[in-house]
User: Fold this.
Amino acid sequence: METINGEWIMRGLRWDDPKRICSCGELTALIKEIGFLPLFSGEVEGFSAEEHVSPKYWWSGSREHDPWKWREMIAGEHEVAYGKFFGGRAGFISAEWLPYFANYRRGGYDFDARYEDGLANHREKLIMDRLVDRDEDGEAVFDNKDILSTELKKLCGFGKGGEKNFPGITAGLMMQTYLVTAEFRRRRNKKGGEYGMAVSVLTPPEAIWGYEHVTSAYGESPETSWERIFERVRSLFPQAGDSEIISVIGKKP
Assistant:
């Protein structure tokens, strides 16, 4: 996606291109095949969902054709993770590759340990404490709280006269893989009717895929996990330069 004269111009394939991704299921299959995929185009040519679909139906609301709608559907199916994983921009990570991203992005830290070592701030802790329970020994217990992000913002004290930059803080937690988007849902009024645009539900990935799976790459160094990710992109997109790949996946720890 690029901006020309203030207008978004979407990249993509012709409607009749046989290589075009035609459905939500096909996009999920592509993400699993590659392992991880930004939603929108960036510095590495071909390395995005945008470049594999037609630009014709973006933001049309069609479940059959709209890639923006597909990302809502994919997030709720939990076959792959969805969140702001690539330079603060949206994208997908397969369950297979999620542990390597978690190890690299977290530096081997669970959130509690990160906070205790002074590497996380109090606004991040406000959010994580709302989404993670504790057992009688004080250990983290992960369960999908099913809280709309609009409600989570209020519960954590963000907003007028309170804490600032809820979108930036949650984006940072997603970049570190402490949070993912579990699903999208529309808000409901007092009569139970839905209204407005769909809103994200944020949760720790451990609440979906389990602590043991998400942290299963902690046994290797964060540098090794980064190298796996880097080499995966380089093998699939050999035309990309090292700096272009790093601009998408992030720097080596």
About this structure: Residues 14 and 54 are 6 Å apart (CA to CA). The first strand starts at residue 2 and ends at 4. The chain has eleven helices and nine strands. The two ends are 29 Å apart (CA to CA).
